[in-house]
Amino acid sequence: MYELGRGVPQGGAEAVRWYRLAAEQRHAPAQFNLGIMYEFGKGVLQDYAEAVRWYRLAAEQGHASAQGYLGVMYDNGEGVPQDYAEAVRWYRLAAEQRHAHAQFNLGIMYEFGKGVLQDYAEAVRWHCLAAEQGNARAQLSLGIMYEFITGVLQIFLWHTCGSTCLRRKEAPMEL
Hints:
Elements: H1 12-23, H2 28-40, H3 48-59, H4 64-76, H5 84-95, H6 100-112, H7 120-132, H8 136-148, H9 152-167
Helix pairs in contact: 1-2, 2-3, 3-4, 4-5, 5-6, 6-7, 7-8, 7-9
């Protein structure tokens, strides 16, 4: 409420105080929110290492958004040494919980071979899963792949994503 000013005066510091009280009781959503506050310097001084600390506590409890954000921190080397393999690990945990942004990020890791062996088929698979949930960046990536990828991989792309269109009783995209 304090973070957004709903029914109370908006105040990041007051939001941090309440988030911290819940976060210290191992409340994963509060830990995640506290991580956000530190990452973006809302109500506290910006501190990536502290953001990572709170994201990790929530992520280790299975909080999908925290897992995704922790993956981003490792991917970008913010608050931790850059480590693509560790980013992939956290993206995958969130992606397996249907977290669309993490699915997109995992697709990018496969597309460019960051932390994993480059694998366009896996990239397509993760982008399709994110795109099905309305992730615009994944939809853009798939459009680019359809435009520029040819041959066997394009057939795989159609079978992976085109079959989704068929399940929805829509016309598949033309190859």
